[in-house]
Amino acid sequence: MATENYKIFNDSVHGHIRLHPLLVKIIDTPEFQRLRKIKQLGGGYFVFPGASHNRFEHSIGVAHLAGELVRSLRAHESEITDQDELCVQIAGLCHDLGHGPYSHVFEIFMKEEKPDLNWTHEKASIEMFEQLMNNRMNGIREIMAKYRLDDQDIMFIKELIFGPNPPNGVSNQLPKQSSDPNEKEKWPYRGRPMDKSYLYEIVANKSTGIDVDKMDYFSRDCLHLGMKSNFSHERYMKFARVCTTEKNEKKICMRDKEALNMYELFHIRYLLHKNAYQHRVKKAIELMIIDALLAAEKENFKLDGKTISETVSDMSTYLKLTDNILDDIKRETENAKEIIEKIERRDLYRFIDGKLYKGKPEWLRTERVKTKLSKFTQSSEEDFRVTVINFDYGQKEKNPIDSLWFYRRDNTGTAIKLEKDEVSYIKPEVFQETNVFLFYTKSTAHGLNDEQLKNFWNSIEIKNYRRKTI
User: Which of 65, 177, 205, 215 is the most exposed place for a label (fewest CB within 10 A)?
Assistant: First the structure.
């Protein structure tokens, strides 16, 4: 590609990065600029003073890393085209367009307010991407055509963001891509054929969880949280190769000697969740933000004539839904306003107690714990909020290294799995745990002493033990 019209960005994580003119044009749209007003870590800025970064800069970082990885692979894989590279970068840039106020906090609100809708930010990202392209003031479709991107490429971008069968758009009518008729049944994608399956592992990797989205936000979040990350995405880029498995599948593989570097990726993921993303004060504040949104919904707060949960069906209104919504709610409600003002005064939901469990017990459900707690204390369920948080290394109870593909120095085209004695014997015995947090919503004391709390936890576990053994 010609580079004379590329624009240089000075990023806090990646330094000076160069972006394609089409990416710059996408950045300069209202749909993308909206991300400046959505915090990357949700309620984290209320706890960590440095966590002021937004989805805007993260998305630019993902586009940059997506381009870096594609170009690294392309140096050894001649089948990758200019259009492939540009599509992957666009997907990296637009993958978070659909996030609501305070990022994942809004997703939890939607699950509580409209559980049957099955709303996700990935679905909203596709819909916002459609609006971005269809907004004639943006002129994006014309520029896409200039760089020879067609309906097939637009479908590919959507699939990179959402997965198979993304919502909306005439490109959904495209046939599945495969040169082999036998592959059409098992290959779910329409944007690219199965022999380019590795391209679907770059932005949002559904199989191993290793993708440039995580690589950017791990580095970016650590920087703003004041934490250290020992994983080197630069080193990953240098050693990444496209290799073929024994089943003739093409995968992005890593050099065998880099296995421990990959452990660091999963380890920093765990540490970020444990120390920051699921910090108990952060969770208390986010629960209060959710309750403020739910209260505003009940008080019939509206934006362009739509309640907060109704805005997700209209992207022109959803475009206006950012973290600033709390300021609007304060001006127009009573009950929701009271919750928001409590956050500002630091009059937060009180942490009662927490409990850590090995693995992910099937019986451990938020509503079950909440109901049991209200009965145990003879209080209303509305007086309590419960969070059940799962921590893992990205592959639930499994060792994440077992899902990765590697290659050897003397055979760079063949994908292999590593034996346990080729990695390290020093590694965690358990890769998954579950933490339960109990919060009390009232300003008064909850009245539970240590003995009562111990009895409460025992009552849950004993009941579960009997149910399993009967």
Answer: 205
